Amino acid sequence: NRPTQLSSWNWSNDLLLTQGELPVDVALHTQLVRNRLGDRETVIEFGPVLQTDLGRTQLNANLFFERTLASRSAADPTQLKYQWQARYRWMPGVHFGAQGFGELGAWDDWSPRQAQSHRAGPAVFGSLRLNEREEVKLQAAWLMGKTYGRRGHMFSTRLAYDF
Questions:
Q1: Tens of pLDDT along the chain (163 residues)?
Q2: Is residue 131 part of a domain?
Q3: Number of domains in the chain
Q4: String of b and e for 82-118 (b: at least 16 CB within 10 Å)?
Q5: Residue 153 lies in a domain
Q6: Cβ atoms 65, 82 nearer than 8 A
Q7: Where in the sequence is the domain holding 23, given as residue range(s)?
Q8: pTM for the structure as a whole
């Protein structure tokens, strides 16, 4: 058994460019990641975020470019990643759906299919409003598939406190 340890510091910002003006909302996603394990690389991720609603179902599709800014190893080419999500608003505070994630390789020269990563699976979302401004959100997913050619089943969870 290994003790729990902090693997990275992440700073994210999504700039909403349209909000209800078009059938699909568009945002620009940026994330800076400072890894604390391994070669302690610093990575930036950026790209479009698309979201639309069909009745009680929310659909998301994201296409991200990932570039290593600082690393102890040789510079890697900019990588292309994707995310998607379908989320059904069952009742206030409880939603369910599915999520998928993948890494395709260099943005301009994708890796062979067997070397790519593709994971997807069921997800559940919960929220608890504390007052007018504060809310605690939880999402969890069981993702199945492959990570760079190897079995990549994983449990993913995210806890957020909005204020």
A1: 667 777 788 898 999 999 888 899 999 999 999 887 766 788 999 999 999 999 999 999 999 999 988 765 666 789 999 999 999 999 999 999 999 999 999 999 998 888 899 999 999 999 999 999 999 999 999 999 988 778 878 898 899 998 8
A2: no
A3: 1
A4: ebbbbbebeeeeebebebbbbbbbebeeebeeeebbb
A5: no
A6: no
A7: 8-116
A8: 0.80
